[in-house]
Amino acid sequence: MDSGRDDGLASELANLPLETRYPPFTLRQYAGFWLPEVTLARGLPAARDRFAPRPDDVLLASFPKSGTTWLKALAFATVRRAAHPPSSHDHPLRRRSPHDCVPFLEISLALADDMDAAAADLDALPSPRVLATHLPFSLLPVPGRLAAAAGRIVYVCRDPKDALVSSWLFTRKASENVGVDAGSFSLREAVELFCAGRGLSCPQWRHVVEYWEASRNEHHRVLFLRYEQMLRDPVGSLRTMAEFMGCAFSPEEEERGVDRAIAELCSMEELKNVEANRKGRTGSGVKADAFFRKGVAGDWSNHMTPEMGKMVDEAVKHGLRGSGFSFADSTTPVSGQPSTLAK
């Protein structure tokens, strides 16, 4: 099927390969990726038909559970710092979830009761708009138009094993919100699906490689970040992001510590203590606390057996064969881009 066309996509869902073992999502394989039915039936077609990109748009892209919530908070606080100084007691991130501050493009459209109203809400956002997506690069809405509009994409990748465990734990929590019993969905089952490239937005390695290749081919338009590097140097990573998004911190701002204040505002510790993130629900209906766990690197070893870890490593190694990309490079600065280690 031509991934560049939507014609009849919703009506053709029944003919796409089906995966029902990843609660609470019913997945279909489209253009090589396993995506939720609702995304394919409503979100993707609506994004392509109703989304009008702007030259100064910032699109935050990620494989699920790869640092998306943190990336949203950092980008929003940075782009909107003139209107919302990080020191403000009434800052939106002190009252709302990052997911309500930065909407998902395809998800907000897919879940909307009134799609026209949802599209109008996206269009009404002030420029520069900060939006998010879990779509693969090859399925971004009208990528040709986006390229012509010179919108910027910031992508964050994470170690596959950590992303897998975080996704598994999240889906179990998310299932509770929709009355689906995911208690029997074991980590081993999640590992086996992941290794077969059949989980949510999988294959993960292909998702990552598409954006990595785009960042190499269009470095002025796509910034590729590694979650582990961001953890080691959040302020340096934030400065890299700000410069790329067209809103670099001035020497005066750095002297006043604005960048450090934003990094602190968006830290896991601060965000977890916001009442809306402890007790509220996001616009999609999911309990906000489901998006906040540990946020550390290497936590997979507290959940997976060594055998499971080896299974994932072997599957990823096979999937990356010939790509030139390596997750092991997360320990070093990204080649060809500013180091995130210099403060």
Would you mind describing this structure in some detail?
The chain has 343 residues and is α/β, with parallel strands linked by helices. The chain has a single domain, classed as P-loop containing nucleotide triphosphate hydrolases (Rossmann fold). The chain has 16 helices and seven strands. The protein has helices at 37-50, 68-79, 98-101, 105-110, 115-124, 143-149, 160-177, 187-195, 204-217, 227-232, 234-244, 251-256, 258-265, 268-272, 275-279, 306-320; strands at 18-22, 25-30, 33-36, 58-62, 130-133, 152-157, 222-226. The protein starts with 17 loop residues before the first strand and ends in a 23-residue tail after the last helix. The relative contact order is 0.16.
